[in-house]
Amino acid sequence: MNTVRILLVEDNPGDVALLRLAVEELGAKAAIDVARDGEEALRMVPMANEAPYDLALVDINLPRIGGLDVLERLHTEGRRPGRHTFVYSSSSDPRDRAAADSPLVERMIQKPETWTEVLALVREVLSTARPPADDGER
Amino acid sequence: MTLNTHFIRRVFDNGLDAVAAFDDNLRFIYWNDAMEEATSLLAESAVGASVYQLFPAMRETGLDEPLRAALRGEQRVVDAPFYGASSTAREYEWFVTPLHEGTRVSGGISVARSRSRGGDLAERMAETEQRFKIMADCSPVLLWMSGEDSLCNFFNQTWLEFSGKPLEEEVGVGWAAGVHPADFERCMDTYMRAFNARESFEMEYRLRRHDGAYRWILDRGSPRYSPAGVFAGFIGSCIDITDRKESEDQTRELAARLNKTNQHLERLLYAASHDLREPIRMVTSFLSLAERKLGGNDPQTAEFLAFARGGAERMRSTVDGLLDFARVREGTPSLEPVEIDDLVRDVCADLKCLIEENQARVVADGLPRMHADAIRLRIALQNLIANAIKFRTLAPPVVSLSAAREGDTWVIAVRDNGIGFDPQYAELAFGMFQRLHDREQFAGNGMGLAIVREVAALHGGRAWATSAPGQGSTFYLSLQEPT
Description:
- The structure holds two protein chains of two kinds.
- Chain A is built from five helices and five strands, in the order E-H-E-H-E-H-E-H-E-H.
- Chain A is of the alpha/beta class.
- A five-stranded parallel β-sheet of chain A has the order 2-1-3-4-5.
- In chain A, helix 1 (13-25) crosses helix 5 (115-129) and helix 2 runs parallel beside helix 3.
- Chain B is of the alpha+beta class.
- Chain B contains 16 helices and 17 strands.
- A five-stranded antiparallel β-sheet of chain B has the order 2-1-5-4-3. Chain B has a five-stranded antiparallel β-sheet with strand order 7-6-10-9-8, with helices on both faces.
- The mean pLDDT of chain B is 87.
- The chains are: A alpha/beta, B alpha+beta.
- At the A-B interface, helix 1 and helix 5 of A face helix 11 and helix 12 of B.
Protein backbone atom coordinates (compact mmCIF):
# COMPACT_ATOMS: atom_id res chain seq x y z
CA MET A 1 0.00 0.00 0.00
CA ASN A 2 1.31 3.42 -0.89
CA THR A 3 2.07 5.87 1.83
CA VAL A 4 -0.13 8.94 1.47
CA ARG A 5 1.68 12.27 1.62
CA ILE A 6 -0.04 14.94 3.61
CA LEU A 7 0.92 18.58 4.08
CA LEU A 8 -0.39 19.99 7.32
CA VAL A 9 -0.23 23.77 7.56
CA GLU A 10 -0.79 24.31 11.26
CA ASP A 11 0.85 26.49 13.89
CA ASN A 12 -0.73 24.82 16.91
CA PRO A 13 1.47 21.92 18.13
CA GLY A 14 -1.51 20.47 20.00
CA ASP A 15 -3.45 20.04 16.77
CA VAL A 16 -0.39 18.56 15.07
CA ALA A 17 -0.04 16.05 17.91
CA LEU A 18 -3.74 15.15 17.83
CA LEU A 19 -3.70 14.50 14.09
CA ARG A 20 -0.51 12.40 14.30
CA LEU A 21 -2.02 10.39 17.19
CA ALA A 22 -5.18 9.80 15.19
CA VAL A 23 -3.21 8.60 12.16
CA GLU A 24 -1.30 6.25 14.47
CA GLU A 25 -4.51 5.05 16.11
CA LEU A 26 -6.05 4.28 12.75
CA GLY A 27 -2.89 2.41 11.72
CA ALA A 28 -2.64 4.34 8.48
CA LYS A 29 0.53 4.70 6.44
CA ALA A 30 0.86 8.43 6.05
CA ALA A 31 3.79 10.81 5.85
CA ILE A 32 2.84 14.14 7.37
CA ASP A 33 4.92 17.23 6.64
CA VAL A 34 4.14 20.19 8.84
CA ALA A 35 4.45 23.86 7.91
CA ARG A 36 4.20 26.02 11.03
CA ASP A 37 3.23 29.25 9.34
CA GLY A 38 2.30 30.72 5.98
CA GLU A 39 5.86 31.49 4.88
CA GLU A 40 6.99 27.97 5.60
CA ALA A 41 3.99 26.67 3.67
CA LEU A 42 4.97 28.77 0.63
CA ARG A 43 8.46 27.22 0.77
CA MET A 44 7.23 23.65 1.23
CA VAL A 45 4.50 23.48 -1.40
CA PRO A 46 5.93 21.89 -4.57
CA MET A 47 6.52 24.01 -7.65
CA ALA A 48 4.01 24.03 -10.50
CA ASN A 49 5.93 21.36 -12.40
CA GLU A 50 6.26 19.02 -9.41
CA ALA A 51 3.77 16.54 -7.98
CA PRO A 52 1.63 18.02 -5.23
CA TYR A 53 0.90 16.34 -1.90
CA ASP A 54 -1.95 13.88 -1.86
CA LEU A 55 -3.79 16.19 0.48
CA ALA A 56 -3.13 19.54 2.13
CA LEU A 57 -4.93 20.52 5.32
CA VAL A 58 -4.56 24.26 5.86
CA ASP A 59 -5.47 26.20 8.96
CA ILE A 60 -7.02 29.57 8.15
CA ASN A 61 -5.63 31.34 11.21
CA LEU A 62 -1.86 31.44 10.89
CA PRO A 63 0.60 34.00 12.13
CA ARG A 64 1.65 36.71 9.61
CA ILE A 65 0.32 35.22 6.37
CA GLY A 66 -3.11 33.62 6.84
CA GLY A 67 -4.09 30.31 5.26
CA LEU A 68 -6.36 31.86 2.63
CA ASP A 69 -3.64 34.34 1.61
CA VAL A 70 -1.20 31.45 1.22
CA LEU A 71 -3.64 29.67 -1.08
CA GLU A 72 -4.26 32.78 -3.13
CA ARG A 73 -0.53 33.31 -3.67
CA LEU A 74 -0.05 29.67 -4.63
CA HIS A 75 -2.96 29.90 -7.05
CA THR A 76 -1.51 32.95 -8.82
CA GLU A 77 1.79 31.10 -9.14
CA GLY A 78 0.02 28.10 -10.65
CA ARG A 79 0.97 25.89 -7.69
CA ARG A 80 -1.25 23.39 -5.93
CA PRO A 81 -0.50 22.29 -2.36
CA GLY A 82 -2.30 18.97 -2.77
CA ARG A 83 -4.40 16.95 -5.13
CA HIS A 84 -7.04 17.73 -2.54
CA THR A 85 -7.00 20.81 -0.37
CA PHE A 86 -9.03 21.20 2.81
CA VAL A 87 -9.00 24.32 4.94
CA TYR A 88 -10.05 24.21 8.52
CA SER A 89 -10.53 26.64 11.34
CA SER A 90 -11.72 26.84 14.90
CA SER A 91 -13.95 29.67 13.78
CA SER A 92 -17.60 29.10 12.96
CA ASP A 93 -17.81 32.60 11.59
CA PRO A 94 -19.93 32.68 8.42
CA ARG A 95 -17.59 35.38 7.09
CA ASP A 96 -14.67 32.93 7.29
CA ARG A 97 -16.75 30.28 5.59
CA ALA A 98 -17.62 32.65 2.77
CA ALA A 99 -13.94 33.55 2.40
CA ALA A 100 -13.12 29.91 1.77
CA ASP A 101 -14.59 30.19 -1.73
CA SER A 102 -11.04 29.98 -3.07
CA PRO A 103 -10.72 27.90 -6.28
CA LEU A 104 -8.13 25.67 -4.60
CA VAL A 105 -10.33 24.83 -1.63
CA GLU A 106 -12.23 21.60 -1.86
CA ARG A 107 -13.71 21.67 1.61
CA MET A 108 -14.04 23.99 4.58
CA ILE A 109 -14.07 22.17 7.91
CA GLN A 110 -14.57 23.29 11.49
CA LYS A 111 -11.80 22.07 13.76
CA PRO A 112 -12.69 19.04 15.88
CA GLU A 113 -13.58 19.63 19.52
CA THR A 114 -13.24 16.05 20.81
CA TRP A 115 -11.11 13.03 20.20
CA THR A 116 -13.98 11.33 18.39
CA GLU A 117 -14.22 14.27 16.03
CA VAL A 118 -10.44 14.20 15.49
CA LEU A 119 -10.64 10.57 14.47
CA ALA A 120 -13.54 11.32 12.12
CA LEU A 121 -11.59 14.13 10.47
CA VAL A 122 -8.46 12.02 9.98
CA ARG A 123 -10.51 9.15 8.57
CA GLU A 124 -11.97 11.52 6.00
CA VAL A 125 -8.59 13.03 5.20
CA LEU A 126 -7.02 9.61 4.67
CA SER A 127 -9.81 8.28 2.49
CA THR A 128 -9.73 11.39 0.31
CA ALA A 129 -5.92 11.38 0.09
CA ARG A 130 -5.69 7.76 -0.98
CA PRO A 131 -5.15 7.51 -4.74
CA PRO A 132 -8.40 6.62 -6.61
CA ALA A 133 -7.06 3.15 -7.52
CA ASP A 134 -6.80 2.18 -3.84
CA ASP A 135 -10.20 3.60 -3.00
CA GLY A 136 -11.79 0.25 -2.17
CA GLU A 137 -13.07 1.10 1.29
CA ARG A 138 -15.59 3.73 0.19
CA MET B 1 -69.33 138.49 43.13
CA THR B 2 -65.80 138.10 44.50
CA LEU B 3 -66.49 134.51 45.36
CA ASN B 4 -68.05 134.08 42.00
CA THR B 5 -65.06 135.58 40.17
CA HIS B 6 -62.73 133.41 42.22
CA PHE B 7 -64.74 130.32 41.34
CA ILE B 8 -64.79 131.18 37.67
CA ARG B 9 -61.03 131.71 37.73
CA ARG B 10 -60.54 128.24 39.25
CA VAL B 11 -62.59 126.73 36.44
CA PHE B 12 -60.58 128.57 33.81
CA ASP B 13 -57.24 127.92 35.48
CA ASN B 14 -57.65 124.16 35.42
CA GLY B 15 -59.57 123.87 32.22
CA LEU B 16 -58.31 122.20 29.12
CA ASP B 17 -59.21 125.16 26.93
CA ALA B 18 -56.68 127.95 26.53
CA VAL B 19 -58.35 131.01 27.99
CA ALA B 20 -57.19 134.63 28.03
CA ALA B 21 -58.99 137.92 28.79
CA PHE B 22 -58.01 141.33 27.46
CA ASP B 23 -59.02 144.92 28.08
CA ASP B 24 -60.14 147.49 25.50
CA ASN B 25 -56.47 148.25 24.70
CA LEU B 26 -55.88 144.62 23.77
CA ARG B 27 -53.76 144.17 26.89
CA PHE B 28 -54.09 140.79 28.50
CA ILE B 29 -55.58 140.72 31.98
CA TYR B 30 -55.90 136.95 32.32
CA TRP B 31 -53.87 133.96 30.95
CA ASN B 32 -54.55 130.39 32.11
CA ASP B 33 -52.26 127.28 32.26
CA ALA B 34 -53.56 125.86 29.00
CA MET B 35 -52.79 129.20 27.37
CA GLU B 36 -49.23 128.97 28.66
CA GLU B 37 -48.95 125.55 27.10
CA ALA B 38 -50.53 126.58 23.80
CA THR B 39 -48.30 129.63 23.34
CA SER B 40 -45.23 128.81 25.46
CA LEU B 41 -45.74 132.19 27.17
CA LEU B 42 -46.00 132.32 30.94
CA ALA B 43 -48.88 134.22 32.56
CA GLU B 44 -46.58 136.64 34.41
CA SER B 45 -45.00 137.88 31.19
CA ALA B 46 -48.26 137.84 29.21
CA VAL B 47 -50.56 139.63 31.66
CA GLY B 48 -50.11 143.36 31.19
CA ALA B 49 -48.61 143.03 27.72
CA SER B 50 -50.55 143.89 24.61
CA VAL B 51 -51.41 141.40 21.87
CA TYR B 52 -49.02 143.17 19.49
CA GLN B 53 -46.18 143.12 21.99
CA LEU B 54 -46.60 139.38 22.41
CA PHE B 55 -47.38 138.55 18.80
CA PRO B 56 -45.82 141.27 16.60
CA ALA B 57 -46.78 139.50 13.38
CA MET B 58 -50.45 139.54 14.18
CA ARG B 59 -51.28 142.84 12.60
CA GLU B 60 -49.86 141.92 9.20
CA THR B 61 -51.35 138.45 9.14
CA GLY B 62 -54.74 139.78 10.13
CA LEU B 63 -54.99 137.17 12.84
CA ASP B 64 -55.96 139.98 15.27
CA GLU B 65 -59.29 140.46 13.51
CA PRO B 66 -61.40 138.39 15.99
CA LEU B 67 -59.89 140.39 18.88
CA ARG B 68 -60.70 143.72 17.30
CA ALA B 69 -64.17 142.45 16.37
CA ALA B 70 -64.76 141.65 20.07
CA LEU B 71 -63.93 145.24 20.96
CA ARG B 72 -66.66 146.27 18.48
CA GLY B 73 -69.06 144.03 20.42
CA GLU B 74 -69.00 141.14 17.97
CA GLN B 75 -68.28 137.42 18.47
CA ARG B 76 -66.00 135.40 16.30
CA VAL B 77 -65.45 131.66 15.96
CA VAL B 78 -62.52 130.88 13.70
CA ASP B 79 -59.91 128.22 13.17
CA ALA B 80 -56.51 129.44 14.08
CA PRO B 81 -53.06 127.98 14.39
CA PHE B 82 -51.33 128.32 17.72
CA TYR B 83 -47.59 127.91 18.07
CA GLY B 84 -46.63 126.04 21.22
CA ALA B 85 -43.30 124.75 22.51
CA SER B 86 -43.03 122.22 19.70
CA SER B 87 -42.89 125.10 17.19
CA THR B 88 -45.30 123.16 15.03
CA ALA B 89 -48.66 124.77 14.70
CA ARG B 90 -51.65 123.04 16.17
CA GLU B 91 -55.14 123.88 14.91
CA TYR B 92 -57.37 125.46 17.48
CA GLU B 93 -60.99 126.37 17.41
CA TRP B 94 -60.78 129.98 18.53
CA PHE B 95 -63.72 131.67 20.13
CA VAL B 96 -63.55 135.40 20.95
CA THR B 97 -66.38 137.23 22.65
CA PRO B 98 -66.71 140.79 24.03
CA LEU B 99 -66.70 141.59 27.73
CA HIS B 100 -69.27 144.18 28.71
CA GLU B 101 -69.20 146.59 31.58
CA GLY B 102 -72.74 147.88 31.52
CA THR B 103 -73.37 148.66 27.85
CA ARG B 104 -69.78 149.56 27.21
CA VAL B 105 -67.36 146.98 25.70
CA SER B 106 -64.51 146.80 28.21
CA GLY B 107 -62.52 144.06 26.55
CA GLY B 108 -62.86 140.45 25.48
CA ILE B 109 -62.38 136.79 26.29
CA SER B 110 -60.46 134.45 24.05
CA VAL B 111 -61.08 130.71 24.34
CA ALA B 112 -59.07 128.34 22.22
CA ARG B 113 -59.86 124.62 22.14
CA SER B 114 -57.46 122.18 20.56
CA ARG B 115 -59.29 120.91 17.50
CA SER B 116 -57.26 117.89 16.72
CA ARG B 117 -58.50 114.89 18.63
CA GLY B 118 -55.25 113.78 16.94
CA GLY B 119 -53.46 115.62 19.63
CA ASP B 120 -54.81 113.17 22.14
CA LEU B 121 -54.02 110.24 19.86
CA ALA B 122 -50.46 111.48 19.47
CA GLU B 123 -50.22 111.70 23.23
CA ARG B 124 -51.60 108.22 23.65
CA MET B 125 -49.21 106.91 21.06
CA ALA B 126 -46.32 108.66 22.72
CA GLU B 127 -47.37 107.04 25.97
CA THR B 128 -47.63 103.61 24.35
CA GLU B 129 -44.21 104.07 22.89
CA GLN B 130 -42.85 105.08 26.25
CA ARG B 131 -44.41 102.02 27.82
CA PHE B 132 -42.92 99.82 25.10
CA LYS B 133 -39.50 101.33 25.65
CA ILE B 134 -39.65 100.68 29.39
CA MET B 135 -40.77 97.12 28.79
CA ALA B 136 -38.11 96.61 26.17
CA ASP B 137 -35.38 97.99 28.39
CA CYS B 138 -36.43 95.85 31.35
CA SER B 139 -36.61 92.68 29.23
CA PRO B 140 -33.88 90.08 29.82
CA VAL B 141 -33.70 89.38 26.09
CA LEU B 142 -31.85 91.48 23.55
CA LEU B 143 -34.33 93.29 21.31
CA TRP B 144 -33.85 95.07 18.03
CA MET B 145 -35.99 96.64 15.36
CA SER B 146 -35.32 97.58 11.79
CA GLY B 147 -37.14 99.86 9.40
CA GLU B 148 -38.50 99.20 5.94
CA ASP B 149 -34.99 99.93 4.63
CA SER B 150 -33.72 96.87 6.59
CA LEU B 151 -31.46 99.08 8.70
CA CYS B 152 -31.73 98.71 12.44
CA ASN B 153 -33.19 101.72 14.23
CA PHE B 154 -33.77 100.40 17.73
CA PHE B 155 -31.89 98.34 20.30
CA ASN B 156 -33.12 97.91 23.84
CA GLN B 157 -31.03 98.71 26.89
CA THR B 158 -30.33 94.99 27.38
CA TRP B 159 -28.72 94.85 23.94
CA LEU B 160 -26.70 97.97 24.55
CA GLU B 161 -25.50 96.66 27.90
CA PHE B 162 -24.54 93.38 26.22
CA SER B 163 -22.58 95.03 23.43
CA GLY B 164 -21.27 97.81 25.65
CA LYS B 165 -21.85 100.31 22.85
CA PRO B 166 -24.11 103.36 22.65
CA LEU B 167 -27.21 103.26 20.47
CA GLU B 168 -25.62 105.58 17.90
CA GLU B 169 -22.92 103.02 17.16
CA GLU B 170 -25.34 100.12 16.87
CA VAL B 171 -28.02 101.60 14.60
CA GLY B 172 -27.92 101.11 10.86
CA VAL B 173 -25.51 98.24 10.30
CA GLY B 174 -23.22 99.19 13.18
CA TRP B 175 -24.40 96.23 15.24
CA ALA B 176 -23.11 93.80 12.57
CA ALA B 177 -19.53 94.72 13.49
CA GLY B 178 -20.06 92.64 16.63
CA VAL B 179 -20.94 89.48 14.70
CA HIS B 180 -18.15 86.89 14.63
CA PRO B 181 -16.35 87.04 11.26
CA ALA B 182 -16.94 83.32 10.69
CA ASP B 183 -20.70 83.79 11.15
CA PHE B 184 -21.00 87.16 9.46
CA GLU B 185 -21.91 86.13 5.94
CA ARG B 186 -24.39 83.47 7.01
CA CYS B 187 -25.94 85.88 9.48
CA MET B 188 -26.41 88.64 6.91
CA ASP B 189 -27.65 86.20 4.27
CA THR B 190 -30.24 84.78 6.61
CA TYR B 191 -31.44 88.21 7.64
CA MET B 192 -31.59 89.68 4.13
CA ARG B 193 -33.26 86.61 2.65
CA ALA B 194 -35.91 86.67 5.39
CA PHE B 195 -36.23 90.43 5.07
CA ASN B 196 -36.81 90.36 1.34
CA ALA B 197 -39.28 87.52 1.64
CA ARG B 198 -40.97 89.17 4.65
CA GLU B 199 -40.59 85.87 6.48
CA SER B 200 -39.69 85.08 10.06
CA PHE B 201 -36.24 83.67 10.65
CA GLU B 202 -34.31 81.95 13.38
CA MET B 203 -30.56 81.73 13.44
CA GLU B 204 -27.61 81.20 15.71
CA TYR B 205 -24.45 83.24 15.53
CA ARG B 206 -21.69 84.54 17.76
CA LEU B 207 -21.93 88.14 18.93
CA ARG B 208 -19.21 90.04 20.74
CA ARG B 209 -20.01 90.96 24.29
CA HIS B 210 -18.75 94.14 25.96
CA ASP B 211 -15.85 92.17 27.49
CA GLY B 212 -14.72 91.00 24.04
CA ALA B 213 -15.96 87.43 24.51
CA TYR B 214 -18.06 86.00 21.68
CA ARG B 215 -21.33 84.55 22.89
CA TRP B 216 -23.65 82.27 20.94
CA ILE B 217 -26.91 84.06 20.28
CA LEU B 218 -30.22 82.64 19.16
CA ASP B 219 -31.89 85.40 17.15
CA ARG B 220 -35.54 85.19 16.12
CA GLY B 221 -36.88 87.91 13.84
CA SER B 222 -40.30 88.59 12.34
CA PRO B 223 -41.65 91.20 9.97
CA ARG B 224 -43.74 93.91 11.58
CA TYR B 225 -46.56 95.92 10.07
CA SER B 226 -48.26 99.21 10.81
CA PRO B 227 -51.90 99.10 12.01
CA ALA B 228 -52.84 99.81 8.42
CA GLY B 229 -50.96 96.67 7.32
CA VAL B 230 -47.98 98.40 5.76
CA PHE B 231 -44.67 96.59 6.13
CA ALA B 232 -42.58 98.56 8.59
CA GLY B 233 -39.45 96.48 9.01
CA PHE B 234 -38.45 93.66 11.33
CA ILE B 235 -38.45 93.12 15.07
CA GLY B 236 -36.29 90.54 16.72
CA SER B 237 -35.28 89.07 20.02
CA CYS B 238 -32.07 87.31 20.98
CA ILE B 239 -31.03 85.11 23.84
CA ASP B 240 -27.56 84.01 24.89
CA ILE B 241 -27.41 80.25 24.31
CA THR B 242 -23.69 79.81 24.89
CA ASP B 243 -24.15 77.72 28.02
CA ARG B 244 -26.67 75.49 26.34
CA LYS B 245 -24.43 75.10 23.31
CA GLU B 246 -21.42 74.28 25.42
CA SER B 247 -23.32 71.61 27.29
CA GLU B 248 -24.58 70.26 23.97
CA ASP B 249 -21.01 70.10 22.72
CA GLN B 250 -19.96 68.33 25.88
CA THR B 251 -22.78 65.84 25.53
CA ARG B 252 -21.86 65.20 21.92
CA GLU B 253 -18.22 64.75 22.79
CA LEU B 254 -19.14 62.42 25.63
CA ALA B 255 -21.40 60.41 23.35
CA ALA B 256 -18.62 60.11 20.77
CA ARG B 257 -16.19 58.96 23.44
CA LEU B 258 -18.70 56.48 24.79
CA ASN B 259 -19.33 55.18 21.31
CA LYS B 260 -15.61 54.70 20.77
CA THR B 261 -15.22 52.90 24.07
CA ASN B 262 -18.15 50.68 23.13
CA GLN B 263 -16.57 49.84 19.81
CA HIS B 264 -13.32 48.99 21.59
CA LEU B 265 -15.19 46.75 24.00
CA GLU B 266 -17.06 45.05 21.18
CA ARG B 267 -13.81 44.39 19.33
CA LEU B 268 -12.23 43.17 22.56
CA LEU B 269 -15.19 40.88 23.21
CA TYR B 270 -14.96 39.51 19.69
CA ALA B 271 -11.19 39.04 19.77
CA ALA B 272 -11.19 37.53 23.26
CA SER B 273 -14.01 35.08 22.61
CA HIS B 274 -12.52 34.15 19.25
CA ASP B 275 -9.08 33.52 20.70
CA LEU B 276 -10.47 31.61 23.67
CA ARG B 277 -11.98 29.00 21.39
CA GLU B 278 -8.56 27.67 20.42
CA PRO B 279 -7.22 26.86 23.93
CA ILE B 280 -10.61 25.55 25.00
CA ARG B 281 -10.60 23.22 22.02
CA MET B 282 -7.18 21.96 23.11
CA VAL B 283 -8.55 21.25 26.58
CA THR B 284 -11.66 19.45 25.34
CA SER B 285 -9.78 17.44 22.69
CA PHE B 286 -7.00 16.26 24.97
CA LEU B 287 -9.39 15.60 27.85
CA SER B 288 -11.46 13.35 25.64
CA LEU B 289 -8.27 11.63 24.48
CA ALA B 290 -7.10 11.24 28.09
CA GLU B 291 -10.51 9.85 29.06
CA ARG B 292 -10.12 7.26 26.38
CA LYS B 293 -6.58 6.26 27.33
CA LEU B 294 -6.91 6.39 31.13
CA GLY B 295 -10.61 6.15 31.94
CA GLY B 296 -10.82 2.46 31.22
CA ASN B 297 -8.28 1.61 33.94
CA ASP B 298 -9.86 3.43 36.85
CA PRO B 299 -13.52 4.46 37.33
CA GLN B 300 -12.57 7.38 39.58
CA THR B 301 -10.15 8.80 37.00
CA ALA B 302 -12.89 8.42 34.41
CA GLU B 303 -15.29 10.34 36.63
CA PHE B 304 -12.78 13.17 37.25
CA LEU B 305 -11.99 13.49 33.56
CA ALA B 306 -15.71 13.52 32.71
CA PHE B 307 -16.26 16.42 35.13
CA ALA B 308 -13.29 18.27 33.67
CA ARG B 309 -14.55 17.73 30.14
CA GLY B 310 -18.07 18.81 31.15
CA GLY B 311 -16.65 22.05 32.52
CA ALA B 312 -14.56 22.64 29.44
CA GLU B 313 -17.55 22.05 27.18
CA ARG B 314 -19.65 24.47 29.14
CA MET B 315 -16.84 27.01 28.86
CA ARG B 316 -16.78 26.47 25.11
CA SER B 317 -20.54 26.92 24.88
CA THR B 318 -20.35 30.19 26.83
CA VAL B 319 -17.54 31.50 24.67
CA ASP B 320 -19.54 30.55 21.57
CA GLY B 321 -22.47 32.55 22.91
CA LEU B 322 -20.24 35.55 23.58
CA LEU B 323 -18.74 35.25 20.14
CA ASP B 324 -22.16 35.17 18.47
CA PHE B 325 -23.21 38.17 20.51
CA ALA B 326 -20.01 40.03 19.61
CA ARG B 327 -20.49 39.17 15.95
CA VAL B 328 -23.96 40.69 16.02
CA ARG B 329 -22.74 43.82 17.78
CA GLU B 330 -19.52 44.38 15.87
CA GLY B 331 -19.54 46.76 12.92
CA THR B 332 -22.54 48.45 11.34
CA PRO B 333 -25.49 46.49 10.01
CA SER B 334 -26.05 46.96 6.29
CA LEU B 335 -29.67 46.81 5.24
CA GLU B 336 -30.54 45.23 1.94
CA PRO B 337 -33.59 43.43 0.55
CA VAL B 338 -33.58 39.90 1.95
CA GLU B 339 -35.85 37.02 0.91
CA ILE B 340 -36.80 35.55 4.27
CA ASP B 341 -37.73 32.22 2.67
CA ASP B 342 -34.15 31.90 1.38
CA LEU B 343 -32.77 32.80 4.78
CA VAL B 344 -34.92 30.16 6.50
CA ARG B 345 -33.78 27.57 3.96
CA ASP B 346 -30.12 28.40 4.71
CA VAL B 347 -30.77 28.20 8.44
CA CYS B 348 -32.42 24.80 8.03
CA ALA B 349 -29.39 23.60 6.11
CA ASP B 350 -27.15 24.72 8.98
CA LEU B 351 -29.44 23.00 11.48
CA LYS B 352 -29.73 19.82 9.41
CA CYS B 353 -28.37 17.59 12.21
CA LEU B 354 -30.61 19.08 14.87
CA ILE B 355 -33.69 18.86 12.64
CA GLU B 356 -33.00 15.23 11.70
CA GLU B 357 -32.16 14.13 15.25
CA ASN B 358 -35.45 15.53 16.48
CA GLN B 359 -37.49 14.58 13.41
CA ALA B 360 -38.57 18.21 13.40
CA ARG B 361 -40.55 19.97 10.72
CA VAL B 362 -39.94 23.64 9.91
CA VAL B 363 -42.87 25.20 8.05
CA ALA B 364 -42.20 28.46 6.30
CA ASP B 365 -43.61 29.43 2.99
CA GLY B 366 -44.38 32.66 1.28
CA LEU B 367 -42.46 34.79 3.74
CA PRO B 368 -41.93 38.27 2.35
CA ARG B 369 -38.87 40.16 1.35
CA MET B 370 -37.66 42.59 4.01
CA HIS B 371 -34.92 45.12 4.41
CA ALA B 372 -32.50 43.59 6.84
CA ASP B 373 -28.90 42.75 7.54
CA ALA B 374 -28.86 39.24 6.11
CA ILE B 375 -26.04 37.83 8.27
CA ARG B 376 -27.46 39.16 11.51
CA LEU B 377 -31.06 38.23 10.77
CA ARG B 378 -29.88 34.76 9.88
CA ILE B 379 -28.19 34.41 13.26
CA ALA B 380 -31.41 35.54 14.97
CA LEU B 381 -33.60 33.14 13.00
CA GLN B 382 -31.15 30.32 13.61
CA ASN B 383 -31.39 30.88 17.35
CA LEU B 384 -35.19 31.05 17.28
CA ILE B 385 -35.61 27.93 15.13
CA ALA B 386 -33.02 25.97 17.12
CA ASN B 387 -34.76 26.91 20.37
CA ALA B 388 -38.14 25.93 18.94
CA ILE B 389 -36.75 22.47 18.16
CA LYS B 390 -34.70 21.98 21.32
CA PHE B 391 -37.38 22.82 23.85
CA ARG B 392 -39.61 20.02 22.65
CA THR B 393 -42.11 17.65 24.18
CA LEU B 394 -42.31 13.97 23.24
CA ALA B 395 -44.23 14.97 20.12
CA PRO B 396 -42.08 15.70 17.05
CA PRO B 397 -41.35 19.43 16.93
CA VAL B 398 -43.25 21.52 14.40
CA VAL B 399 -41.93 25.05 13.91
CA SER B 400 -43.95 27.46 11.80
CA LEU B 401 -42.82 30.87 10.68
CA SER B 402 -45.07 33.68 9.55
CA ALA B 403 -44.78 37.41 9.01
CA ALA B 404 -47.22 40.30 9.29
CA ARG B 405 -46.88 43.94 8.39
CA GLU B 406 -47.86 46.52 11.00
CA GLY B 407 -47.41 50.02 9.62
CA ASP B 408 -43.72 50.41 8.78
CA THR B 409 -42.78 47.30 10.75
CA TRP B 410 -42.53 43.64 9.85
CA VAL B 411 -43.23 41.20 12.66
CA ILE B 412 -41.83 37.71 12.21
CA ALA B 413 -43.45 35.06 14.42
CA VAL B 414 -41.78 31.71 15.16
CA ARG B 415 -44.29 29.35 16.67
CA ASP B 416 -43.58 25.92 18.16
CA ASN B 417 -45.42 23.03 19.80
CA GLY B 418 -42.75 22.67 22.50
CA ILE B 419 -42.77 22.70 26.27
CA GLY B 420 -43.60 26.40 26.53
CA PHE B 421 -42.91 28.44 29.66
CA ASP B 422 -44.62 30.43 32.34
CA PRO B 423 -45.30 33.87 30.75
CA GLN B 424 -43.96 35.63 33.85
CA TYR B 425 -40.48 34.57 32.73
CA ALA B 426 -40.95 35.82 29.18
CA GLU B 427 -38.74 38.87 29.73
CA LEU B 428 -36.13 37.01 31.78
CA ALA B 429 -35.57 34.63 28.88
CA PHE B 430 -34.16 37.49 26.77
CA GLY B 431 -31.44 38.35 29.31
CA MET B 432 -27.81 37.36 28.80
CA PHE B 433 -26.85 33.92 30.11
CA GLN B 434 -30.44 33.38 31.24
CA ARG B 435 -31.94 29.94 31.15
CA LEU B 436 -35.46 28.88 32.02
CA HIS B 437 -34.82 25.15 31.76
CA ASP B 438 -32.20 22.84 33.21
CA ARG B 439 -28.91 22.45 31.47
CA GLU B 440 -28.81 18.65 31.59
CA GLN B 441 -32.01 18.30 29.64
CA PHE B 442 -31.72 21.25 27.26
CA ALA B 443 -28.32 22.29 25.97
CA GLY B 444 -27.52 25.94 25.36
CA ASN B 445 -25.51 28.84 26.66
CA GLY B 446 -28.37 31.18 27.55
CA MET B 447 -27.25 33.79 24.99
CA GLY B 448 -29.57 32.88 22.12
CA LEU B 449 -32.48 35.17 22.94
CA ALA B 450 -30.21 38.01 24.07
CA ILE B 451 -28.73 37.83 20.57
CA VAL B 452 -32.20 37.79 18.99
CA ARG B 453 -33.14 40.89 20.96
CA GLU B 454 -29.90 42.59 19.91
CA VAL B 455 -30.59 41.85 16.24
CA ALA B 456 -34.11 43.24 16.60
CA ALA B 457 -32.78 46.41 18.23
CA LEU B 458 -30.25 46.87 15.40
CA HIS B 459 -33.22 46.86 13.01
CA GLY B 460 -35.15 49.39 15.07
CA GLY B 461 -37.43 46.64 16.32
CA ARG B 462 -38.14 44.48 19.36
CA ALA B 463 -38.18 40.84 20.39
CA TRP B 464 -40.75 39.30 22.69
CA ALA B 465 -42.55 36.04 23.38
CA THR B 466 -45.89 34.63 24.41
CA SER B 467 -46.36 31.19 25.88
CA ALA B 468 -47.99 28.99 28.48
CA PRO B 469 -46.52 25.78 29.96
CA GLY B 470 -47.36 22.84 27.75
CA GLN B 471 -48.92 25.09 25.12
CA GLY B 472 -45.93 25.77 22.95
CA SER B 473 -44.57 29.26 22.56
CA THR B 474 -44.37 31.99 19.95
CA PHE B 475 -41.37 34.25 19.62
CA TYR B 476 -41.70 37.54 17.81
CA LEU B 477 -39.07 39.62 16.11
CA SER B 478 -39.96 42.98 14.65
CA LEU B 479 -37.95 44.87 12.04
CA GLN B 480 -38.53 48.41 10.99
CA GLU B 481 -38.61 48.94 7.25
CA PRO B 482 -36.46 51.90 6.27
CA THR B 483 -38.49 54.70 4.74
